[in-house]
Known about the structure:
- This protein has 240 residues and is an alpha/beta fold.
- It has two domains: 2-103 and 198-235, 3-Layer(aba) Sandwich (D-Maltodextrin-Binding Protein, domain 2); 105-196, D-Maltodextrin-Binding Protein, domain 2 (3-Layer(aba) Sandwich), CATH 3.40.190.
- 35% of the residues lie in helices and 30% in strands.
- It has eight helices and ten strands.
- The chain is elongated.
- The model is unreliable at 1-18 (pLDDT under 50).
Amino acid sequence: MGVLRTVVLLLLAAVTASGARAETVRLLTIDAAPWASLDAAGRPAGALPAIAAELSARTGHTVTIDLMSLARMERELGEYDCTIILWSERRAALVERGEDVYPMPFGVIARKGVTLDSYDDLLPLVISVVRSLAIDPRFDADPALHKDFDTDYLQGLRKIAHRRLDAVAGAIPTIRYQALKAGLADEMGQHLTLRTVPLTLQWVRTSPRLGLLPEFNRAIQAMRADGTLDRILAANHYSP
């Protein structure tokens, strides 16, 4: 299978090279591990860089990556070709939506020993919420919930370790990864998913390389079909 896959990738690259000029595609995404962050050598690492490398191999185009905070990324995305980030209708005028890459689950993770089987189980809990982060419409607007607002997930995780609260709300894989890196994975218990938001390929409408979107969509579809996408995601703490 490894030899066959290599041959297929070489053929795809050859077709691209013979049929159209190879391009350099500038991709911008959020700086947030395990999706994407800089390693000790200052190189992008995580799920997104691995996906970008595979897209480069399959299309024959070079994909470069820049990482920014979400707020800065939203301001500067128009200067790039594309992004792979959580889909938002607020961005629809700026970008054309491409293939979905991963259904990001948002919800609440309780500390170990706390029952979290249904929404009603949230009512007696003190829950860390990152300020301005949307979790789910019902959760966000519910005045009956006891919310403790923090600046980031790590602050909430540390409070869990000191038994100052019961749960952390947000993107489930990101919270679990940050707990693992902080040595707090054993503190975490059940989680309750409240909604999913797709991480999606999005191409800037004013990009001179907008015509490459169908080619990149097909590459993602092929990665999903042959299992490559699931393998990359699982290796970077995103469950299929």
